[in-house]
């Protein structure tokens, strides 16, 4: 992937992100990755709340995550987002978390599916992305 296709979002590790030893609790990496994807979408002009009003959303369907080295309280992190593969109803991201020294701490592959959230009480089902979203993501990948 081209470096100009890599989105980077800064994250600071807060006390609440850590365990008793001051190390980031493993599940909080998922939060960091999610925030970066949300900010990436926002940077592309895709506001999730607008689409949620139309009952369209994205749900994480699959996660592969490798925790390589620990992040610690008060670290400044860089969380990246790169589109690895774009399908009509899903997108696969490669994401990483580095500390301010550039050390790779976490690498992940996330598959998100586009869904129709249906009416209250009805099921959620996978659907093709609206053309407006697909075209923007295609241009960003």
Short structural description:
This protein is an alpha+beta fold and 141 residues long. The protein contains three helices and six strands.
Give a written overview of the molecule.
There is one protein chain. The chain has 141 residues and is an alpha+beta fold. It has one domain (3-140): Roll (Thiol Ester Dehydrase, Chain A). It has 3 helices and 6 strands, in the order E-H-H-E-E-E-E-E-H. Strands 1, 2, 3, 4, 5 and 6 form a 6-stranded antiparallel sheet that branches. Keywords: Hydrolase. InterPro entries: 4-hydroxybenzoyl-CoA_TE, HotDog_dom_sf, Thioestr_dom, Tol-Pal_acyl-CoA_thioesterase, YbgC/YbaW. This is Acyl-CoA thioesterase.
What topology does this entry show?
Elements: E1 7-12, H1 26-43, H2 48-52, E2 56-67, E3 76-86, E4 90-99, E5 104-116, E6 125-126, H3 131-140
Antiparallel strand pairs: 1-3, 2-5, 3-4, 4-5, 5-6
GO molecular function, one term: fatty acyl-CoA hydrolase activity
Domain Thioesterase: 21-106
Keywords: Hydrolase
Essential attributes:
141 residues; alpha+beta; Thiol Ester Dehydrase, Chain A; 3 helices; Tol-Pal_acyl-CoA_thioesterase; 4-hydroxybenzoyl-CoA_TE
How many strands, what sense, and barrel or not for the largest sheet?
6 strands, antiparallel
Shape: globular
Number of domains: 1
Order of helical and strand elements: EHHEEEEEH
Unreliable stretches: none
Question: The CATH topology is what?
Answer: Thiol Ester Dehydrase, Chain A
Per DSSP, the total helix count is 3
Distance between the termini: 8 Å
CATH architecture annotation name: Roll
**Class derived from helix and strand content:** alpha+beta
Number of strands: 6
Percent range of helical residues: 10-25%
Return the average pLDDT rounded to an integer: 93
Q: Roughly how many Å is the radius of gyration?
A: 16 Å
Oligomer: single chain
CATH class designation: Alpha Beta
**CATH homologous superfamily annotation:** Hotdog Thioesterase
Portion of residues in beta strands equals: 35-45%
């Amino acid at each position: 992937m081209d470096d100009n296709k890599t989105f980077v979002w800064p994250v600071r590790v807060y006390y609440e992100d850590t365990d008793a030893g001051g190390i980031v609790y493993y599940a909080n990496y998922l939060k960091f990755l999610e925030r970066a994807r949300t900010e990436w979408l926002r940077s592309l002009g895709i506001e999730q709340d607008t689409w949620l009003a139309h009952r369209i959303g994205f749900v994480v369907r699959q996660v592969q995550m490798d925790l390589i080295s620990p992040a610690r309280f008060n670290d400044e992190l860089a969380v990246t987002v790169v589109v690895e593969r774009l399908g009509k109803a899903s997108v696969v991201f490669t994401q990483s978390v580095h500390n301010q020294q550039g050390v790779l701490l976490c690498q992940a592959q996330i598959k998100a599916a586009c869904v129709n959230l249906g009416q209250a009480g009805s099921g959620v089902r996978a659907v093709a992305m609206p053309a407006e979203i697909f075209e923007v993501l295609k241009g960003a990948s």
